[in-house]
Amino acid sequence: MRGEGLIPWRRHHRPQQTVPSQDHDDLGHDMSRLIDSFFGRRAGLSDPFLGFGDPGFGAVDFTEKNGAFSVSIDLPGADEKDIDVELNGNRLSISAERSREEEVERDGFHQIERSFGRVRREVILPDDVDGSKVDAKFANGVLTLVLPKTETAKEKTQKIRIGH
């Protein structure tokens, strides 16, 4: 019996095959799904940013209380008219457009800088969201969504008494 396969530096290495990803966001989402499935977590809840990894999105806060989920997203520089929020089943999609123009004029010098960008994120919410009662507000660059749970989901919660 030959023991060459047991010695790490004598193993025959095959090139690792990689699966091309459309972009880094897909890879991040794939990794989150993999971690979720490994640890048995509900989709989208293990990622602290809920899949909003694009640098165009600011801080994202996700809470669950009082029979509802709340999502607050910083969207600095966006106008309310340029933000789209859609809920299709349990898939929440948020997109925003931002444009900025800055002009500087000095003695013999004229500079104009323009920037434009569109960001889009999708996240899978728990199945117990009541999509017909979602409330959205945008103020001071922060988008806040309140997504109530369905009545059946609220009924599932019960207090368990500890003791004799």
Features:
13% helix, 3-stranded antiparallel β-sheet, mainly beta, 4-stranded antiparallel β-sheet, Immunoglobulin-like, 164 residues
TL;DR of this structure?
The protein is mainly β. It has helices at residues 24-39, 151-156; strands at 60-65, 68-74, 83-88, 91-106, 109-124, 135-139, 142-148. Mean pLDDT is 73; it is low at 13-22 and 41-54.
Structure report:
The chain has a domain at 54-156: Sandwich (Immunoglobulin-like), CATH 2.60.40. The strands form two sheets. It has a four-stranded antiparallel β-sheet, with no helix packed on it. Strands 3-4-5 form a three-stranded antiparallel β-sheet, with no helix packed on it. A hairpin with a 2-residue loop joins β1 and β2 (68-74). Mean pLDDT is 73; it is low at 13-22 and 41-54. It is elongated and about 85 Å long. It is built from two helices and seven strands. The longest helix has 16 residues, at 24-39. It has 164 residues and is mainly beta. Helices cover 13% and strands 38% of the residues. The chain has helices at residues 24-39, 151-156, and strands at residues 60-65, 68-74, 83-88, 91-106, 109-124, 135-139, 142-148.
